[in-house]
Amino acid sequence: MSRIGYLLLLSMLLSAATAMAQDRFEAMQYGSVVDEQGRPVPNVEVRGLWKRLHRSPFPSSLVVTRTDQKGKFAVPLPAGEVSGIEFLVSDESGLVGYVKRDITRLGEPVHKPAKVLLKPGYKYHVEVKDADGNVCEDINVSVMPAFLGKFVQQTDAQGKATIFAPIEHRADAIVAWKRERGIDYVMFDRFGEIAAGRISQLHKSTVEMKLTSWKSYRIRVVDLDKKPLAHVALTPKGIHVIERGLPVTSGNLMTVYTDDKGWADVRVPDNSPHPSILVQKPGWYTYDVTGASLYSDGPIKMVPMIPIKGSVLNPDGSPAEGVPVFFNGANEPTRRFQEFARTDHDGKFYAEVPGNSYCIVFAKTNDLAASPVRLVVHHDRPVQPGTLKLAPMTQVFGKLTDRNGQPLKNGRLSFRQADGKWGEYFETLPVEQRLTQGPKNSSIFNGHYTRADEEGKYEILLPKGQYEISLEKDSQSQQFTINSGEPKELDLQNRMLPERMLRGRLIAADESGCSVAKARILGLAQNLLSNKKFYYASFHASCNSQGEFETKLLDLPYVIAAKSQDERCQGLVFVHPDTDNVDIRLDPVMEVTGTLLEPDGTPVAKRSITANLEFEYDGQTHTAPGKWGTTTDADGRFKLSGLIARQKYTVRVLRDVRPGEIGQRLEFAMHFNTEENNANQDLGEVRIASPEN
Q1: How far is 310 from 374, CA to CA, in rounded Å?
Q2: Which terminus of the chain is more solvent-facing, meaning fewer CB atoms within 10 Å of its CB: N or C?
Q3: How far apart are the first and last CA of the chain?
Q4: Is 693 domain-assigned?
Q5: Residue 187: which domain range?
Q6: pLDDT over 80 at 226, yes or no
Q7: What pLDDT, in 10s, does the model give residues 444-474?
């Protein structure tokens, strides 16, 4: 891309962000820029970046301005609660400045102006080459995520560039990119020990980078009536070059926009695994697209945002000003969502939620709450939930004890106020919409949380309603109803199983190149409610430099997975309840390939394939959480990456939805074992034997 092309791209990013925010500004943030002697700096570029606290049509918003002759500037802020307001300043000589402000709420004036100090920052020398080792000229280089404006430089004829970054700004990486050529990055190490392939904030030597070529996804976006949507922003959520280990955030770096027919080509690094793409357009709900949707011939359907207006009253009937109003809901394809608003001086609120959804609206303050209002939100009409009236909440108090009757110190307690509808949403929409946009479940709840003190005592205020009560690390729950404002005493006992100490050690396979230092550990415990399912979040741990770890476990069987810091090696082991010590072998992750064919030998193109890891316990087969997924290409070929050696997998092939069905259905399943020697495997021709209906 030429410099003119880059400027056009930058202009398009700025105009999109400006269009998103037009007519929605509510307040001004003022500030000034000074040099190290405290003198005002006139006519320098100031870039204001922010992010909406609860939801944003774009990952972040950007306004560009310049200081006046007295070094002052003003930046408009958007409606709603805003977090992470950042100001980046740079001049022609390489001086830079940075400041970050706290959360600003709708309607609240910003009293204290931002003061940005322009001074020397970090300096990095970068050299960029292509995959063949040839120097690359005119490649964009910058720190991430501050990659716009003067913070971007281009490499010269020798492939070199010098970039600057504010000392106060904690950048993720240095990135080099060109839309026609490719991308690479080098991550900063923030933990004091410089890992292989990383750099420090004070890096002095030349940072060497080698471009990885792009691969492209052809994507079309339409509305619910299948009409094309233009100017939709498609943004890969992260940049992941396998050779660099972990991914980094991309901001708007690789954002592209659909044309008048709804088409766009999204680029990601060629070997990027499992890309996730944000689909964003002002007035439409933002959601992720992953997996089969990227390979499917079908378009991506966007759901419009629907206005919700209402008001909140105090118990005496007067308008309630400044009251938070929450909107929890679910639909397809956006699934679950949360929105937020705050009442104005007349007690009125305004928000937007996805269409074709089931939504609960509730308002509460520290000691007042309104009864939740349940709504069905169609995609073609506004919604008015009416008036929410606040009432005093009920005081609930008691004592938490463990299974032996001893006080449960600092125990976490949750009260979930369920909607009680359980799918009634399906009966409120026409059949056509019900089949295509109906949610997988509509169990939406209003959660309240507290912790016990050192004596196990707790206290919480709750609105009227029916609750499901859960204690930390206790999968059993109980029901509780509040139907009056009188204080209620409720003593609770945590019935979780006893804990035990487990000590583990990672062992790298011979000549594998795997590193056990600082590897990450995840434990999956058997669900108390079912002996066939295992669930996440049992425990997380990190190894020391020798690959050792220890942790407390419940007295249950566990599946323990280990992953090296660079994610190139993994291991897995099953641990019985009576195990105190365990060794886990780390092997390089592997690939499994094959060709999917119909019974007559015809290649099965663009079909979703998933692989689940299975293991045996008590004579039964269990499926571990998580899965590996891919889609066949035009010739039926597929590749499953990141699999663990010496394990048993089940591959499932899904077929398309038929009339009257919701969601893809299983068509064919097969089993295979990954090899002992960690070599990549080819399953050859895999024929769909007998499709299931």
Answers
A1: 13
A2: C
A3: 51
A4: no
A5: 122-210
A6: yes
A7: 556 788 888 989 999 999 888 888 887 765 5
